Amino acid sequence: MTALAPPLTGSLLVCGTTSDAGKSFVVAGLCRLLARRGVRVAPFKAQNMALNAAVTPDGAEIGHAQWVQAVAAGVEPEAAMNPVLLKPTSERASQVVVMGHATGVQSAAEYHRSKRALLPLVLDALSDLRRRFDVVVCEGAGSPAEINLLDGDIVNLPLARAAGVPAIVVGDIDRGGVFASLYGTVALLPDDLRACVRGFVVNKLRGDPALLGDGTAELERRCGVPTLGVLPMAGPAAVADIDNEDSLALDRVDPEPVTSTGDVLDVAALRWPRVANAGDLDPLRLEPAVRVRWVRSVSELGRPDLVVLPGSKNTRDDLDWFLTSGLAAAVERSDAAVVAVCAGLQMVGGRIDDPDGVEGAPGADKGLGWLPVSTEFRGGKVLDRPTGSAVAGPGAGHPVGGYRIHHGRVTPGAGAEPWLRAAPGGDPLGWWHGRVAGTTLHGLFESDRFRAAVLAWAAGRAGRRWQPGGLDFGAARTARLDRMADLLEAHLDLDRVAALIAEGAR
Q1: Are 342 and 277 in contact (CB under 8 A)?
Q2: Alpha-carbon distance 157 to 167, whole Å?
Q3: What is the residue range of 68's domain?
Q4: Which listed residue (64, 406, 442, 491) is catalytic?
Q5: What pTM was computed for the model?
């Protein structure tokens, strides 16, 4: 049998020594590699904690990473691929989403006490995927050796043990201490969980692999776990941070290399404390003549051509940060074009009312008043994937699509001009006035002609002689997923990986 090709069946769990070690990267790369070889494969993450989410075709909410991994696998994303999603609302509480639908907000302590009851549901979701797909590539969360949390762990090695799935552990060598991290992970585990760990992957190596010497062999001698491969650091031209949902990755994002020799459009994106769905910026970051910067202070704002106000999981608190930091006043003074998405739209409107405390403490706040709209938070969450077009203003006449995922219902007031409208002849998806355009639609910049037109509008306002680069974002995403698969193909022992997957057959 050729490695990672039919008739391969089974499952594998990919854990990491830390968050942002490369679990999502390896899972997406394996899904793509398997799909290219004719294996029907699905991703799975029992419990995800992220503020970046996506909506499936049937209206379920899952982690954005699992949505992208399904794209890599060439299959429709579904709730079973991420049965539990935690969306932090504060330092100590999260909204809990189960099988695609929000069930309420729990403190960390409350969730820890209750999550063991979710294990049967998680196992059923995994079992369902294993029945319908040849291979399921599972992703862990954080570290599998958090000894204070092992008794209620439903996403790492206790899941692997219960489901009979072998595991590998990915370590980030770029941060240093990778051998200690890998060895320490195994050493801290109880015997029954230690037996689940069947391989290591060293990730993000800069330079010559020969510099590792006999380190991997010595690591295997000491703990009995072989290293299945050493992956080089993947720079911006390879995969960078496109589709990355980890906040650690978000905070170290560097601007994409600018390849245009003409005018470069400067885009400033506000980095709220609770920023959500940051992937809305990815298509802009890939444009050849666009530079996207995350901005956290007035001094960082500079004189951008376009300001993007992204989503947030706590609109009122992040609005308070926007105001008290001085950034709101600075953006207003800048005269730059503004595109506000979801929570950003709510902030630039008028009254924001949350009487039941759906998203934080009950109460109401006054928005910035840049658009004549108001917002009321309600318990039921809007989850859909509308398509439509820009009917006026920036991008007028061009098709647009994406997804909506919010509790806040936005109501237009007098003078609010529809910007985007669902097709055919449906409800408004956004409004605009002057230099400010706002929408409830995430993913809108993935629509290529619409994105180019909006950027041209911002460039025109700024007096830039800017030309669109002809980016096909869907093709660019696929190309990056292919490069991830190529990297794994070149640097992993695929025979040993295939053998481990086969051990995880039902």
Answers
A1: yes
A2: 7
A3: 10-238+478-503
A4: 442
A5: 0.93
Please give the pLDDT value at position 237. Answer: 46
- Does residue 247 lie within any of the structural domains? no
Contact 276, 52 (CB under 8 A): yes
Ordered mean pLDDT values, 10 residues apiece, the chain (506 residues): 88 96 96 98 97 96 97 98 95 94 94 92 98 98 94 96 98 94 97 97 92 92 97 66 58 53 89 96 95 96 97 96 98 97 98 92 95 95 96 97 96 94 90 96 98 97 92 96 96 97 93
At 271, which CATH number? 3.40.50.880
Residue 396 three-state SS? coil
pLDDT at residue 259, as a whole number = 55
CATH of residue 52: 3.40.50.300
**Cβ contacts of 66 within 8 Å, gap of 6 or more:** 43, 44, 45, 48, 77, 81, 82, 139
Structure tokens at 134: 């040849």
Sign for the pseudo-dihedral over CA of 491, 495, 496, 498 = positive
Ramachandran category for residue 245: left, alpha or beta (phi over 0 → left; psi -120 to 50 → alpha): alpha
138 is catalytic: no
What's the pLDDT at 432? Answer: 96
Cα(341)–Cα(285) distance, integer angstroms = 16
Q: Which residues contact 155 (CB under 8 A, 6 or more apart)?
A: 45, 46, 47, 84, 122, 140, 141
With H, G, I as helix, E, B as strand and everything else as coil, classify residue 332: helix
β 311-312/275-276 pair status: antiparallel
* Residue given tokens 């025109």 in the structure block: 460
Residue 155's SS3 state is coil
pLDDT score, position 244: 65
Quick one: 78 and 16 in the same domain? Answer: yes
**For the chain, what is the largest distance between any 2 Cα atoms, rounded to a whole number of angstroms?**
73
Helix (H, G, I), strand (E, B) or coil at 446: helix
What is the per-residue pLDDT for 239? 47
Known catalytic residue: 101? no
Residues, the chain: 506
Residue 251, classified by CB atoms within 10 Å of its CB into exposed (0-12), middle (13-18) or buried (19+), is exposed
User: Which residues have CB under 8 Å from 502's CB, separation 6+?
Assistant: 8, 9, 10
Q: Does residue 185 share a domain with residue 107?
A: yes
Query: Which of the following is catalytic: 31, 342, 406, 491?
Result: 342
Task: Give the per-residue pLDDT at 240.
Answer: 46
Question: What pLDDT was estimated at residue 279?
Answer: 94
- DSSP-derived 3-state class of residue 182: helix
